[in-house]
Amino acid sequence: MTALPPPELVCPAGTPAGLRTAVDAGADTVYCGFQGPTNARNFPGLNFTPKQMAQAVIYAHERDAKVLAAINSFPTAGRTHIWKQAIDDAVECGIDAIIIADIGMARYLAARHPDQRVHLSVQAGASSAEAIRFWCDRFDIKRVVLPRILTVAEIRKVHDEIPCEIEAFVFGNIGMMAEGRCSLTNYVTGSSTNLDGVCSPANHVHYHEDDQGNLTSRLCDVTIDRYAQGENAGYPTICKGRYNVPHKEHYYAFEEPVSLNLTHLLPDLMRAGVTALKIEGRQRSRAYVRAVVSAFRAAVDDYAAGRTPDVSHLLALTEGQRETQGAFRSKTWR
Amino acid sequence: MEAELTMGPVLFNWEPDIWRDFYLQVADEAPVSTVYLGEAVCSKRAPLFDKHLEEVVTRLEAVGKDVVFSSLAEVTSAVDRRLVKKVAGSEAVDIEVNDISALWHLGGRTHVIGPFVNVHNEESLDAFAENGAHHICLQPEMPKEGIRALAGHALKRNVTLEVQIFGRVPLALSARCYHARAHGKTRDSCQFICERDPDGMVLRTLDDTPFLTINGIQTMSYTRLNLAGELEELTAMGIARFRLSPQSTGTVKASTIFRDVLDKKLSAEEATEQLRSCGPDVPFSNGFYHHRPGVEWRTPGVR
Amino acid sequence: MMTEHDSAPLSDTPRQSLRSNKAAPAFPVPLPLFVLQPLLRHIVTTVAGRHPDLFERLGDSQKKKFLIDARGLPLVLVLQPDGDAPQLHAHNRHCVPPCDVRIAGSFPTLLRMIDGQTDSDALFFSRDLSISGDTEASVALRNAIDDLDTTLAEDVVACFGPLAGPVRAVLDYVSGTGRQRQ
Fold this sequence. Notes:
A: about 325 residues; three-stranded antiparallel sheet; 11 helices; about 30% helix; B: about 300 residues; TIM Barrel; 12 strands
């Protein structure tokens, strides 16, 4: 195997301790968000205060790592000041890039902080070269995080047609719906994924295990799935549930509870022109961050040195303890 | 400004002749000022009704209706991209942009922003207006506080706003086709199986409660949006146009009912009663508007 | 060895329905839990004193009562991670007070979790960990604990002072993973 230039490993952190864990485990870059609705992982007990973000940036920079701030939900009319404050705070603490999805916040950044490096979030759903070019032309976007719906061949073509870097997801939860445009959670709970940064918010999730060990997950009064005793479970999101249609019962209508794992496609992604490899999971624990980041650090370094890495131990951390290459390998996934 | 009704694009896969007949009936009978045409959901479907497009446009324009071509909402594959390029290149009509890729093709030409594009705040509206948008159809998720704030701001920017008031609510898009998946096929080998369900395929929970509607790559509500009771408030906010999303039956009749509500010939309660027979017999919803779960229906005692 | 069926009844409605035997007398079974109580009080006040940030992360969830049910043990723990007055009590599993959340798993599983050795989402996916009641509070607690610079298990071990070494050895033996901390 020929050596490839090492890509940037972009890793998640839900807490300051998580960020330090990611940096120490070999992350080139860590992405995180502020507490509150300004990012797409607005979970209880998660995320950073402005002070914690500033300390995190210092910690990372002292170790040659970068920090990206995800400010990637969509502000609703009348409360854009919360998002603008988050942007100002991130710029103030010397963040390496801000990840945005809302065109209004891109406009604000361009006007107020023209020198700040900006990345386009996966929440912007820019899935074609034309859409990405629009963002680059108008707002000088330096990097696009691609939706998890393109094949490697398509990524290569996109790369050849756009003026900015590509960041691609390689591991973690696989969102089934086009990011930034999914109202399923809001339809059931009244809290919005796009506007409040919540997907199946915990305060609306209920688990019930009966005497036989069958586990039922519900979002408000909607049954998402029912697992037999010992059967592996998944996240209680609408797109990972089992449903009935007239001719078929008890099936995963959208996707099974699996995780994306592209370790075996890493060389292909690197050759396709992907600058940065992104690991999903700001909502996961430090144990997850440590394990996944270490494994990918080793894998990326192995590939860069022309070696074939062993990544078999990552399976235990995946949802439903099953993994997929999702859309990346071939169009038959669609 | 007098409030107008519009007919959104057919989001389902209808047989081409049924598709044509629907629009010919709209031309003859529906009191709508604007008709959106074209495939917003799946690029594979677009060629099916292409042969009727010219006839339909001619008939609609002959009776004085404004025709707008809707662009595809999710654009990834080469086929998707070609379709967007083709639609955006139609210079004789206005274009509804449902994905940012169409904006790149339009290059600043004046256009409509469709409901699949995120416009949730004043700065976003400014950004799109600066780029050539003269009219914006808001996302169905938008609560009334947001609609009111944007309506005030849009006035200053000389942009008009539209809100969907009737039909199933678009909730999500995916690269994967869930109609094909339900029939053990993939999107590439789908054999247009979605044609069997002209109002979508109902998805039930494991408790057998109807929950969502599958329309190819799109996921919609099982319930039907009905904002008859909110029309007066929306009109007072300055919303210029109200969109009906086509269903296989009763859509033209629904447009006459909503016209009567706008003209104060019919109360919202009477309208809602009459609207029950227009389209699939499923519950109404209006929760999003009231900043509640979208599935909810906020008129006490009526469901 | 107790089985799944012996544990407190599960429900998805909080507090009241987690009250398993509210009419039961205080200590009907001869378990000398009162012996444990000073130690538990020491542990919870020490941990709380060391990590004031924990309570900011917990937010409103610090007022919630968490039933920690290590399956196979005759006792359960009830934690109220209140910044002002943190509480940790052992209860006989036949007279569990009303709680908001129940977190259940085998003792080694729970130990590995508070020792930061394993990911709780992964434990949930594999059904080694079960959560019922107030899901939001359980997520907040998980995330708050995960932000501690030490692990909760290390803090607990430190509470044993001169016995910390032997206690650590016992915990490592029970969790079955050996001493793998960084």
